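Example 3.2
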Amino acid sequence: MSKPVVISSPAQFSGLLKSSRIVVTDFYADWCGPCKQIAPIYDQLCAQLSRPNQITFVKVNVDTQKEIAASYAVTAMPTFMIFNQGKVVEKVQGADPRKLQAVVKKLAAEADGSSSSGFGGSSSGSSGWREPLTLAKDYSPVTDQVDVKGLELLNADSEFAGVRVLFEESKPTALQKGKAPANQAKDWVESDTDEQLMLFMPFQATLKVHTIQITSLPPAPEDDDEVPMRPKTIKIFTNRPHNLGFDEAEDIPVTQEFELTEKDWDATGTATLSLRFVKFQNVSSLVLFIVDGDGESERVRLDRIRIIGQTGEKRELGKLEKIGDEQGE
């Protein structure tokens, strides 16, 4: 897991500004209470978004690195500065988690999509291996807000990866070139007794959810082997305090339903679900019900899930509550 680089000299800081495309800088002080409060969020962003020579997170102690602090007229702590190719492009003063996350994630998305769209020249963003996605203003990936400890996936085959693999940003092994080694770990999930899956996703904060991307990469059929299917019918429920049973999900109102066809899946095996945004304004949890698959098999496969939206207020973990009515209106 990547950790912020603690700057020990002006020369070290200058060198990073030259070697890394984006440098996210936390100017802090040991005596600063708000600095300590926002530090875990900064560390989380670093762990999720750091890229070698592309995105580097650093910490500058203003008391021990007074020359650096003076060079950028830092007078309030914490102050966050984001450098793009050595120049300051964004500045966030104070412990404002929402603003910090929005600014950093937007630039990270642009950096990931720079090879195809030109860095800083588009609102398109990707996770590197995904196709560029044009994001509406102020929206960015919020998958890091999933409370992984509360995840639950019903009817998953235990021979495959656990549910947390769905929310990793790493490139699925199915997209990697060459034949995978026989002993390579399976980095996807498959259904077990039939094609249905029920995924419960609680969040660390209330979200405005704009888009969900689902990646499914079944292999090509070989001989008479039965291969898993991609999802076809997906039902989404908001703000449930816990996972749903399969029978229960058939009897309660759905927030939104999708029926996917072959044309909905791009070259990376990813389908983009555009949500009715008015119904996903204050979301504390999502349930994805994979009703069936697109084929004759009895198994469905999921490789990755990404959530796009805005982060709202933090909630107390372990105390999931309904927000508004079940339709999110």
